[in-house]
Amino acid sequence: MPRKKPPSTSVPAKGGRDAYEKALGLLVRREQSQRELKNKLARAGYAAAESSDAIGKLAEQEIQSDDRFAGLLARSRAANGYGPRRIAAELKSHGVADRMIAAAIAELDCDWRELARRQLQRHYGRKPAEDAKERDRRAAFLLRRGFDAATVSALTRADIGDPGDEFD
Fold this sequence. Notes:
Blueprint: H1 19-29, H2 34-43, H3 48-60, H4 66-79, H5 84-93, H6 98-107, H7 112-124, H8 132-144, H9 149-160
Helix pairs in contact: 1-3, 2-3, 4-5, 4-6, 5-6, 8-9
């Protein structure tokens, strides 16, 4: 594994481009959070002050927006069958503010229970769980996908029936 070179404080890394141009090039490929841009610019050898100035300028010009990034990532992950907790955790790891995370998830207007049910069906088919061990396996799958415990419990208990129902 090659060793990373420490970031230099000298002027432009690759080909004489400044931090603004490098960040703009990164944003052309895909939307990125400010934290991602800052980390990538640091790895490319740009000084922290120059990186911060470039990212600030891009945000000012509305070329970079953590709100827009959060919305795009949240929609993408929900479309891929991930729950709100997983989406929130991923956005948090990208340095997105809590208020932006809450807004992005609220904007989704998603039926999380139906999404979880579809994921369960896609992964395990229509056959109900045969025993508690299988039910636990399915619950763990949904929890890893980022669905909350109430949704998981409702779906997995409904899967094999609530054991308390037989005594009513």
